[in-house]
Design a protein that fits this description.
Elements (H helix, E strand, L loop, with lengths): L52 H7 L30 H4 L2 E3 L13 E3 H6 L3 E4 L5 E6 L6 E3 L1 H12 L4 H15 L5 H18 L10 H34 L4
Helix pairs in contact: 4-5, 4-6, 5-6
């Protein structure tokens, strides 16, 4: 079988003492890839029961591929281009990314990859050098770069709709890994929102109150504004005292 030779064995920034080092996107116990005996009745080369290949092809035709897609058990819509394992669709398919970069007027790339694999390969997130990506994904098949900020935004929305702290933690950690180190202001703002939600979750806040981020930010802003006005009032008071003391001498 072909291989893209994943160069790293650990996610970027992996450290046993760093709670955000690994996204662990494939460890959710309730994620099923849909493979099994029944899936052999479908046309999915990877044997996935709920393959959306036909629907996706009807929407956006994909490029001809005789490298990875030439393998008998590989499906460009279901198999990770980096590890060849099936991607999983739980929670809106948060754990993988599909490259929809146009490769011609008629076709898009259409290959998918686990974001955890892409982070290990330095093909996702913020990476310098030959890949030169900032909160983006670099496709090894078509060499296109895709913005990951919309995907990270979707991760935040997915978390707001689930009621499992463990699953929410894994999704938020993936979002942090994607955005960490970015130099783009919109991505930095989104990163702060995800980090705030993550630390509130780790602190033990009730799931319902985690998303009061904007209220929290507004409250913090009000404190700073109040402090500024307090300093201005104090400055005015000191100026008046100075004038009163110095006026007889003028």
């Amino acid at each position: 079988m072909f291989t893209w030779n994943i160069p790293a064995t650990k996610p970027i920034g992996s450290n046993a003492d760093d709670p955000l080092a690994s996204s662990s996107s494939e460890s959710l116990s309730d994620m099923e890839d849909g493979s099994g005996p029944e899936s052999q009745l479908t046309k999915c080369p990877a044997g996935k029961k709920f393959c959306k290949g036909s629907l996706l092809e009807a929407q956006k035709p994909t490029m001809p591929c005789h490298i990875c897609c030439g393998e008998l058990d590989f499906c460009r819509h279901c198999s990770c281009i980096l590890c060849c394992r099936n991607v999983r669709s739980a929670f809106g398919g948060y754990s993988y990314f599909r490259c929809e970069a146009p490769v011609s007027e008629a076709y898009i790339c259409g290959h998918v990859a686990h974001l955890d694999c892409a982070l290990r390969c330095f093909l996702a997130g913020t990476v310098g050098g030959v890949f030169d990506i900032d909160a983006a994904y670099y496709c090894r098949r078509c060499d296109a770069r895709s913005d990951l900020v919309p995907h990270a935004t979707n991760l935040l929305e997915i978390c707001k709709s689930i009621h499992s702290g463990a699953n929410m933690e894994k999704i938020l950690k993936l979002g942090i890994c994607i955005l960490r180190g970015t130099n783009r202001e919109p991505a930095q703002v989104l990163l702060r929102q995800i980090e705030t939600a993550y630390y509130k979750l780790k602190k033990g806040s009730p799931l319902g109150s985690i998303w009061d981020i904007y209220i929290y930010i507004f409250s913090e802003s009000c404190i700073y504004i109040y402090f500024i006005f307090y300093l201005l009032d104090l400055l005015c008071y000191l100026c008046n005292c100075y004038l009163v003391i110095m006026s007889p001498l003028l």
